[in-house]
Design a protein that fits this description.
Layout (H helix, E strand, L loop, with lengths): L1 E5 L4 H12 L3 E8 L3 H4 L7 H15 L3 E5 L1 H17 L6 H21 L5 E3 L5 E5 L2 E5 L9 H4 L4 H4 L2 E2 L7 H10 L21 H9 L4 E5 L5 E5 L21 E6 L4 E5 L11 E9 L9 E5 L7 E7 L5 E5 L11 E6 L2 E11 L1
Parallel strand pairs: 1-2, 1-4, 2-3, 4-7, 8-11
Antiparallel strand pairs: 5-6, 6-17, 8-9, 10-11, 12-15, 12-17, 13-14, 13-16, 14-15, 16-17
Helix pairs in contact: 1-8, 4-5
Amino acid sequence: MKIAMLVSGGVDSSVALRLLQEQGHDVTAFYLKIWLEDELAFMGTCPWEEDLAYVRQVCDQAQVQLEVVSLQKEYWEHVVTYTIAEIKKGNTPNPDVLCNSRIKFGFFCDYLARYHEKFDKIASGHYAQVYDQNGITHLACAPDPIKDQTYFLSYLKQEQLSKIIFPIGHLNKAQVREQAQRFDLPNKERKDSQGICFLGKISFRDFIAHHLGEKPGRLVEYETGATVGEHKGFWFYTIGQRQGIGLAGGPWYVVAKEINSNTVFISRHYHDTDKDRRHFTVNHCNWITHRQPTLRSCRIKLRHGAMFHEATLLYNNDDTIAVTLATQDQGIASGQFAVFYDGTTCLGSGTICQIL
């Protein structure tokens, strides 16, 4: 097949590229430049340059054509502005979910259609799998539960997913590292990247401070109403957060935020039964098959990682879904994506809008 391979400079996408090439496919590599150079200039770094240098080495070694595509404007308008607006409202968004649906498999697909001859598939180095059943493409978990990235891919539409392949989706991380050694990749020893894709080594806190600034407010003990400290803005905190509170006598956890008064409520008794958190509603749902499931129970992820919750669902007339988890999760926060699974098949996701 003729395949457009998304490369990032990391080991995963580099191994995926070489596997496709080894299988005899006609591969063209594409690096999406979404780093916000002007926005991050205040940090004095150009984090994309190191990535692109590795990409060029990998493509040169494989003798694969490389094209750099700038989608910085699109990323800013459709991912970053959303992220900042949600945080300003007190929510906890996940920019990487929108990066996949709107940028990597959204605007990039539009770019290919406009400037290139038809590609049979688009490939990436995600840990996920796809399978077809009765003419419908489904998204399935990777066998590596720690690396599985279906959470980040859950907002893809059927039209997008049907064009995608994940060459390393059937492998675990150790096997990918073995393949990197076998191919003697220039980045075979490179560590995995962490954090949000457009920030790289820049801390999310510094990025938010740059855009929203600081606004001193009270840290209030949830049980007593006593002011026990001061914070620099509610937007630096999310429900369930433990790190960064900076008070002795803890551990302290963030349990609530009051936006209008810029108050952050914290507790040393976060896991007590009176703070049971297992009920919430979800809206703005995306179903990968375009069909709302009829399941009354399923598995749910509230964040990237190996942890699933068993849950029961109640479909409301206002297109919201009331969710009850079998076990509590102290990190439920409005704005998070809740991702629904039937076994290992990812059904889609929605945004947590209300915690009950």
